[in-house]
Amino acid sequence: MSIDMSQFYQAFFDEAEELLAEAEHLLLALDLDNPDSEDLNAIFRAAHSIKGGAATFGMTDMAEITHVLENLLDKIRKNEMALTGEHVDTFLEAKDVLNSQLEGHRSGADVDRDVQEEVKRKLKALSEGKPVSAAAEMAAAAASAAAPAAPKPAVVAPAAVVDKMRHYNIDVKALSEKDTANLEGELGLLGDVSSKRLDNGHVAFSLKTEDSEDDIISICAFIVEPEDIKITLQSAAAAPGAAAAPADGKQRYNIEVPELSDKDAENLKSELALLGDVSISKAGGKTIFALTTEDSKDSIESICSFVVDLETLVIKDAPSASAAAPAEDLAVASNGFIEGDGFGFFEPITPPPAAPAAEPEPEPAKPVEAAPAPVIEKKPAAAKKEVEKAAAVETTSIRVGVEKVDQLINLVGELVITQAMLEERISKLDPVTHEDLLNSLGQLTRNTRDLQESVMSIRMMPMDYVFSRFPRMVRDLATRLGKKVEFVTSGAATELDKGLIERIVDPLTHLVRNSIDHGIEVPDVRHQSGKNETGRLSLSASNRGGNIVIEVTDDGAGLNRERILSKAKQSGLPVSDTMPDSDVWQLIFAPGFSTAEQVTDVSGRGVGMDVVKRNVSAMGGVIDIRSALGYGTTMSISLPLTLAILDGMSVSLGDNMYVVPLNLIVETMQPQATDIKTVTGAGFMVHVRGEYLPIIPLYSLFNQPTQITNPVDGVLVIIEAEGKKAALFVDGLVGQQQVVIKSLETNYRKVPGVSGATIMGDGSVALILDVPTIIKMGQNNNSEGVYQ
Amino acid sequence: MSSITESGNNTNDGVTNAKEFLTFVLGNEEYGLEILKVQEIRGYDAVTKIANTPEFIKGVVNLRGRIVPIVDLRIKFNLGKVEYNEFTVVIILNLNGRIVGMVVDGVSDVMSLQPNQIRAVPDIVASIDTKYIVGLASVEEKMFILVDIEQLMSSTDMELMDSVAMH
Fold it and tell me: Among residues of chain A, what percentage have pLDDT more than 90?
């Protein structure tokens, strides 16, 4: 895991946490007899979003649970099933499990698999219409507590679902660490998987899934040769009940290293925590780590090698955790760390006697129950420690409301203006008599500038932040769907408001998924239709006409007008066959609309597009579709600028100042009289480097009085947008600066030719020119012959 | 001043229906608008003119980092003498989150009115279209025209908002 990814994980964690909290809130408020369909939709969307994110980051356990959760919710919201209290209870349980999984991923702690499986099974049972009565549940719980190793009694309804799960052992010939990890990730999409490196160099995967052997082979085929795979089906009876085998495939190791410094020990511990549960103790000049993990000795060694010499490292197999995690070990696990050598800063803490340490185990007297108890009880203890550690990390970032940041930015802007005013006033004072005052003001100036810079940097982020999460997702999805996709991005440096960046992720994720799932065809089909087998998916961002335009373009099948129309008629939407294409495309944004024949866990539920539309509109943006059947689709999201930084050239016109976006300026020039030509009385042209460009006088376009009406006395700014060039005639150039774009539309309305406004250093307002519109307006003016 | 204290007393008397109005002068007429719509009152600053807008839209100003349009009701309704000096007053309104400034001849008072003090509008009384007038109030021999400022400012006449943005 590279460090880079951590920021995205953090974003996902925060987001998922919020979504879960929201879902819980809605669930609790849900009226059983008359559930609000909007609330159900909201819960469904929360689950869907978490699933999307979890899948993107390869957190298959969360994706799995949300997938079943979603299935059930989908049935309820489509009224195929009535909502019961049982549903709500199970949903809440699922929410708790997701929360703990989230916490698990965040801190690297392991999550109690029993509970996960239990909830997953319940959800499945419910979605198949089987009752999971409280009694049955308790029976199941009791059964699993009493005889964890035994298969579930057949009478318990949920067990029937487990039966569908098959347990495969997959033996793969020599495989590198990386490939192993990849393959494990791929197999994880099918079900529960664990891997073990065998002595003969082979890698053994153990997979529990509902899918067939063929599916497994086809997935493996991306990474290894089919000849090298051997798949054996483990008989259902031999396979321990999914829920009953929490430590399945896990091995317990004792790792002995020469005594380490506290810092090294802590480092190593956190490294090992990535593999599984770890606890630390010290004895006889050695530091001993007790590790429960699914990973092989090799990977432990490779991790340890960062911190300790391999020669001095001893890894011993310990008895399996599930079978006999002795109570003493527990005591060591919770106290061992404190026992170590201290620096004498603190009172030595005497380890509590064994009895209290063993307390969490309820009545370990009965031998049958004693076995599972340590496993179940040990997890919370370990998890708690991890959570504490995570809590310490969390404080490094805080989530603050966007309004607060906005307010801060505005206040700092005011401060800068006030400071400029002060400076101006003080500059009139005698520098000798007021030296102290001047010095202090100089300091204030520097501090204000620093303050402004750091405040501004809070909000602006390059689109790269969003774009960089996609390559992995695209790759995974394409592999899974058996498609070949080339992924390109452009405009990753375009800066976007942080608030928008965060909110654009979800819609973009949906669009990219859709493009891969529905847009780009499988290689065979592409080949038949004469296209390159590898589809092309591009993600681009640009500042355009005062908007930020983000486009997802694929060269896939395009939208099928007929199919959308017929589907819309089926769903009872008001449509007619003569609707223009653009209106037809908008139909796909209707809630629950999907033309996909099959619901996969990628897409096809018709939930994506209405969320996309909703999110984009919430940001004040519009989404536009351009599509041609057989040639591809472009989804274009255009966001208004609420706050974006622009490199601009300020130009003067009469008493006013205007800002022209620098990236649209080709050059500026003071024309010679000989360069100016009149064209059939319709307008002026200027001759620049062999080209004749129309002159657009800003004063006449904006009806603003100015002294300078002859281009020779003023300045021509050559602007270019949408492939057209023109020469904008203004009084003069003032300077180049970065400006913060503010929308005029917040309190006023859209003004033709103006994309926004900004506040200049002296506190006055300057309008930012909308160059593409101005070029168009200039053309109209010319053709109407408004000016001679 | 005294009337403000009075009105304060009135509201404290437990009469819940009373509404407070800010009264302002346009030409020879006195108008009132619901005080809860008023964000602040300030002097007239230099505005940035916006191209191709009607004359009564003076332009936009920077109000603590927000770009706020300024309209001059005197021009819009052909009232009073249009001049800008240090006594010119701008009432900054907050209408459902949208902030608009309006230039008036002067701000006079804040008064509290009971519903029974507000009378229906006869057909023609003011320069402002009657559909934006909620009623008339007469207090101490003076007549105030109570304006539904939100309706007025969001009307198409004012050209302050895009048609889509209207509530």
Answer: 4
Partners of A315 in the beta sheet? A255
Q: Are residues A760 and A697 in the same domain?
A: yes
Say if residues A740 and A643 touch (Cβ distance below 8 Å). Answer: yes
Of A660, A740, A664, A753, give the one whose Cα is nearest residue A702: A753
pLDDT score at B126: 61
Q: Is residue A203 part of a domain?
A: no
DSSP string, A352-386: PPHHHHHTTSS-TTSHHHHTHHHHHHHHHHHHHHH
Is A461 in CB contact (< 8 Å) with chain B? Answer: no
CATH topology of domain B2-161: OB fold (Dihydrolipoamide Acetyltransferase, E2P) (2.40.50)
- The two most distant CA atoms of chain B are separated, in Å, by 51
Residues A443 and A471 in one domain: no
Q: Indicate whether A230 belongs to any domain.
A: no
Report how many domains make up chain A.
Answer: 5
Instruction: Using an 8 Å CB-CB cutoff, list chain A residues near B159.
Output: 749
Instruction: Give φ, ψ of A476 to 5 degrees.
Output: -60, -45
Residue A704 sits at the chain B interface (C-beta within 8 Å): yes
A762 near B CB under 8 A: no
Name which of A318, A366, A305 is nearest A146 in CA terms: A366
CA distances from A582 to A517, A520, A579 (A): 22, 21, 8
pLDDT at position A147 is: 42
Residues A434 and A546 in one domain: no
Dist. CA A312–CA A318, nearest whole Å:
19
Structure tokens at B132: 């934006």
Predicted structure pTM score: 0.44
